[in-house]
Task: structure prediction
Amino acid sequence: MSTSSFRSSTVNPDEIALFSKLSSQWWDEQGECKMLHRMNPVRVQFIREKMLEMQREDTDTDAQLDHPKALAGLKILDVGCGGGLLCESLTRLGGLTLGIDASASNVAIASLHAAADPGLRLIPGPFVPTTTPARTSNLTYEHTSAEELLARGGPAQFDVVCSMEVLEHVDNPRTFLSTCAQLVKPGGHLFLSTISRTPLAYALTILAAEHVLRLVTPGTHTYAKYVRPDELLGFFQGFCCPSPGVLGDGGAGRPWISRLYNGAPARTEAETRGIVYVPWTGAWALVPRGSPGARWGEGCNYLLWVRRPLE
Amino acid sequence: MSLLTRSRLAASVCKRSGSTGLRALSTVVHEDSDVVIVGGGPAGLALASALGSSPVVQDSLKITLVEASDLSKVRDWSVASDSFSNRVSSITNTSRQFLAAIGAWPYVDERRTMPIEEMQVWDGISDARITFSATEAAPAGTTAPEMARLTENLNLQRALLRYLDTTPSIKLLDKVKVNSIEKEQEEGGGWPLVHLSDGRVLRARLLVGADGFNSPVRSYAGIQSYGWAYDTQAIVATLNHRPRTHFEPPNTVAYQRFLPTGPIAFLPLSETVSSIVWSTKPPIAKALTASDPAVLATMINAAFRLPEVSIRYLHSQILEAHAAGTPLTPQQILEETSWRERSHSINQYSAYSLSALGKTAPGGIPPEDSDALPPFITSIQPDTIASFPLRFNHADTYIGGGDGARTILVGDAAHTVHPLAGQGLNMGLADVESLFRCIQNAVANGTDVGSHTALMPYARERYFENHKIMSAVDKLHKLYSTTASPVVWARSVGVEVLNELDTIKAAIMMSAGSSRRSSTQEVGWSVAASGIETLARNINTAKALGGGVLGLAGAGAQSLLKQFANMGRS
Ligand SMILES: Cc1cc2nc3c(=O)[nH]c(=O)nc-3n(C[C@H](O)[C@H](O)[C@H](O)COP(=O)(O)OP(=O)(O)OC[C@H]3O[C@@H](n4cnc5c(N)ncnc54)[C@H](O)[C@@H]3O)c2cc1C
Ligand SMILES: C[S@@+](CC[C@H](N)C(=O)[O-])C[C@H]1O[C@@H](n2cnc3c(N)ncnc32)[C@H](O)[C@@H]1O
Result:
C-alpha cells in the first residue's frame, strides 16, 4: 500500500501496512475490531457531554444533554478514522465530518460502508474547505494525512478535531499532536484517546489482548509508543497556538493549558478521563469524575479533551 | 435519519431526490425505515409507543409497525361494563410503571382492571398452601396496595393504539402481512428488505420481531429456538359470580390450584366477574369446551374444591360421555358432584361444599373458610370459552448475526412460556423497556441502532432473566404434574419448590424502582415464612376435607424450615 501520495513525517509505513491488512474487518463487530466498536459509544458520550458542558459554560444556557444533534453544524475532523466508526456516529449527531486515514484501503472500506447507509450523506472526497455553512450533516473520507491537510488548507479549519487510538501508532508524536492542534479553530476542541504507558496497560493491551487472548493481531501495539496522561497535559502546557510569529500577525498565543492544580488542569481548559472495559456488562464505561480510583482508571485506556483558547 | 434516494449505479455517491422518499434499485423499489416492527400484539405496540414517547428518538428515527390483522377492531373495541374479554393478563407493577412512564397507562380503562392484593396457590394433592401478598412486595416503610393488575389484553392494546394516535410520526400499517424477508445484496449494506402483502418493500436499519411464536423475523434471522409443546391445553373463559359479602375480603385475591393435570387459575376482573385459565390435558380440554357452559361452570367450581381423586373421577365421566356422544347435562354433573361431596363428608355449610353455596342466597354469613376459595361461579359469559395449546420455547439468541444481522426479537417471538405464573406478557414488556433504553442510548451516541453494539446490552439484560423465569415455570409445571408421594411431600413443605417460587415471586412482586437485580435470596426466606403463616388455614382445610394427612406431616417440616428461615435472617 502506497502512503507516499502525500507528505507526512508521522506516518509509520509498517503500522499502516498492518491496518490496511485489517481493513476488511473494520465492520465485523464480533471480529478483530470488536473492542473498538464497543468503545465507540463511550467516546462519543465523552465528546457529546464535553461539548454540551462547554456550550453551557459559553452561553450560560441549559443546553439539553439528550439533544440528538449535539454536534449540529460543527466542522469535525477525525484523524486516523480507520473504518469510520467514530465518523459515522459524529455525523449522525449532526457533524459536518471529514475522516482521513493514512491507509487507502481503510478509506475505501469506510466510504463503502457509509454509502450503504441512507442516513448518512456521503460526499465524495477530496475534501474542499468551504465557508458557507451546510444545513444538513454530511460525511467525507479522504486518503491523506493531517500534515497534508494543514499544508493544503492552513490552520484553524475545524471546530472539533478528534484522533482516537492513533497516537500510539504514529512516528513523531509531538509533530502529530501539534499538527492536529493547529487544525483546531480558536475556541475549538481537540479530543484524543490513547493508551497510557503503565505496567497495567502493558498487561492488558499487549500481554493479554495480543498474546494470551488473541483478541487483536500480535504486533498491533508497541509499548514504548504509549503516552501517559501527564505527558499529554505537559505537552499542552507548553503548546501555544498560533505559536509566536507563525501567523505573521505577531500575536503570541496563550498556552492551551495555563497551569495544573494537583496535576489536573482547570475544568474549562482540559480533562483526562479513563475508560475501562467492564467484563460483566460487555461494555466500556467512562470512569466517573472524581471517583476513588479515577487516577487508576486512567492507567490504561483514556480520553483527553483540550480546548484551544479564544484569541 | 432522513429518507434518501440513491442510485444503485453510483455506489459511493449519494444523490437526494427528496420528493418521493422512494429508492430505486434495479429490481425493487423500497422505502427506508430505521425501525420496522413486525407484529402489533402487546409487545410490538408497547415498543412503538415507547419509541413514540421519546422526542429524541422521533427526531432521529423513522419508525414503522406492520400488523397482519385489522387494528381498528382493537382501537374501536367497546363492550358493556360487566362483560369482559377472555384474554386477560396480570400486569405487574414493574410493567405498569413502565407503561405509565411512557405515558400510555392513562389510556387504559382502569375501571375494567382489578388490583390483585393477594395470591393463594395450593397443592392439588396435599393442599399445602402458599400465600403471596402485596404487603410483602412493599419496600420497607411503605405499603404496596397491589402486586399486579388484572387487565384484558384488549384493554391494554386499545390503550397503546390510542396513545399511538397522539404520535403521528410512528407509522402503523395494519391489514398488511409480511410475506417474506430477504437480505439486500448491496455491498457494505445487506440490510433486511421486508416484502409486504400490499406489494411494498421496506428496508430496515433495525428489524424488530414482535411477531409472536411463529416469528417470521426469527426465521429470517436464522435464529434457532429450543422448546417443546406441553401435552397441555389452556381453557380460558369469563365467569360470572356473586359479589363477596362484607364479611369477606373483596374480590382482589387470585387463586391457583395445582392439579396433576395442570393448574387452574382464578383471576378477578371485577366484584362479580373473573377470568379462568385452566391448563389441562388436551382430551379433557376438548370435552370440557364442548360441554354445556353450565357443566363447565360446575366443573370449575369443583376443580377448586373437591379432593383430587374426585376431580379425576369427574374427568373420566366427562370424557366417557363426550366420547359416547352423549355429553353430561348440567343436572347430571350437579348430581355427580353432590354425590362425591357426600362421600368425602364435606360439611355442607363449608365453603368447600358446592351444593350449600349454590343454594345460599347472596348476603348472609359466609362460611369461615370462604376466603380460602374463589367465589362460587354462577355462569359463564357467552362466547368466552376458548382454548390454546401451551408450549415452552426460547430462542437461542435475541440478536440476529451474519446474514440475519440487524434483527432483534422481543416478546413471544423470543420466548413462549406456560401461563401458570402469568409472566409471558410481562416478560415481553420488560424486553420492550430494555430495548427502548438501548435504542435511546444508541441515538444519543450516534450509534447505528441496527448494529450489534447498540443491541448487545438488551440481550445481556434480558436473556438470562427470561431464561431464569422460564425454567422456574417449567420446573413447577413438571413438579406439580407428579402424584408420587415423596415428590408431593417435598413440594408441599416447600423444600423442592423454594428456588422456583423465589424466582417467580421475584418476577411478580419486584416493584419498579427497587433494584432489578435484587437478590432473590431474601425473597426466598419470606416465601418460606409466609408458607408457614398460612399453616393454620391449611389445617382447617385439611379438616374440612376430612383428610389431609400429608398436610399435617408437612406441618412439622414447615416449622423446622421456619427455624432455618429465622436463623437465616438473624
Ligand atoms: C392462555 C394464556 C394465558 C396467558 N396469561 C398471561 C398472563 O396472565 N400474564 C402474562 O403476562 N401473559 C400471559 N399470557 C401470555 C401472553 O398472552 C403473551 O405473552 C403475549 O400475548 C405475547 O405478546 P406478543 O406481542 O409478544 O405476541 P403476540 O400477541 O402473539 O403478537 C404477535 C403479532 O404479530 C402479528 N404477526 C405475526 N406474523 C405476522 C406477519 N407475517 N405479518 C404481520 N403481522 C404478523 C400477529 O398478527 C400478532 O398480532 C398468556 C398466554 C396464554 C396462551
Ligand atoms: C487503531 S486504528 C483507530 C481507528 C479509529 N480512529 C477508531 O478508533 O475507530 C489507527 C488508525 O490510524 C491510522 N493511522 C496511523 N498513523 C496515522 C497517521 N500518522 N496519520 C493518519 N492516520 C494514521 C491507521 O491507518 C489506522 O486506521
About this structure: Residues 399 and 452 of chain B are 7 Å apart (CA to CA). The interface with chain A takes residues 1-4, 6, 11-14, 16, 23, 32, 34, 56, 59-60, 186-191, 203, 205, 401, 441-448, 451-454, 456-457, 460 of chain B (CB under 8 Å). Confidence is low (pLDDT under 50) at residues 1-26, 511-570 of chain B.
